Amino acid sequence: YKAQGVVEDVTNRIVDHIRPGPYRLDWDSLMTSMDIMETFEENCCVMRYTTAGQLWNIIAPREFVDFSYTTSYEDGLLTCGISLDYGEVRPSFVRGFNHPCGWFCIPLKDSPGHSLLTGYIQTELRGMLPQSAVDTAMSSTLANFYSDLKKALKT
């Protein structure tokens, strides 16, 4: 999946809200928990997070364990990740898997104070799910992601 939108804020502040850390749980309505399991350097960690059930719980809550890395990219920032086979799956969760994913955030040259945020998401939710349910959930999740992020940045 690819998601793209203009966000009214500077790249550093936007990426600070997306990457693993204290802001993410405050605004991301899909995410229900996040733990940094290991930190390798300031912008590099292994995190475990859980997501809420979706589509009236047709899609049960999921757990992911991802390696995450954030770095400068051209004039902006890139935060990327990939799932790891790490630790035991907790009861009442299905372990999902993220293939290489990333969010690119670059400033708009013609509009200071605005940034272009582009996400590439390759999520395998796993479990017995019809692809149409996954596609429906992903489209609403990504729309809510931008909406929730924009609200959080205004505070």
Automatic annotation (TrEMBL):
<dbReference type="GO" id="GO:0015485">
    <property type="term" value="F:cholesterol binding"/>
</dbReference>
<dbReference type="GO" id="GO:0070508">
    <property type="term" value="P:cholesterol import"/>
</dbReference>
<keyword id="KW-0446">Lipid-binding</keyword>
<dbReference type="GO" id="GO:0005829">
    <property type="term" value="C:cytosol"/>
</dbReference>
<dbReference type="InterPro" id="IPR002913">
    <property type="entry name" value="START_lipid-bd_dom"/>
</dbReference>
<dbReference type="Pfam" id="PF01852">
    <property type="entry name" value="START"/>
</dbReference>
<dbReference type="GO" id="GO:0120020">
    <property type="term" value="F:cholesterol transfer activity"/>
</dbReference>
<dbReference type="GO" id="GO:0032367">
    <property type="term" value="P:intracellular cholesterol transport"/>
</dbReference>
<dbReference type="InterPro" id="IPR023393">
    <property type="entry name" value="START-like_dom_sf"/>
</dbReference>
<dbReference type="GO" id="GO:0005783">
    <property type="term" value="C:endoplasmic reticulum"/>
</dbReference>
<feature type="domain" description="START">
    <location>
        <begin position="1"/>
        <end position="155"/>
    </location>
</feature>
<protein>
    <submittedName>
        <fullName>STAR4 protein</fullName>
    </submittedName>
</protein>
<dbReference type="InterPro" id="IPR042555">
    <property type="entry name" value="StarD4"/>
</dbReference>
<dbReference type="InterPro" id="IPR000799">
    <property type="entry name" value="StAR-like"/>
</dbReference>
<dbReference type="GO" id="GO:0010879">
    <property type="term" value="P:cholesterol transport involved in cholesterol storage"/>
</dbReference>
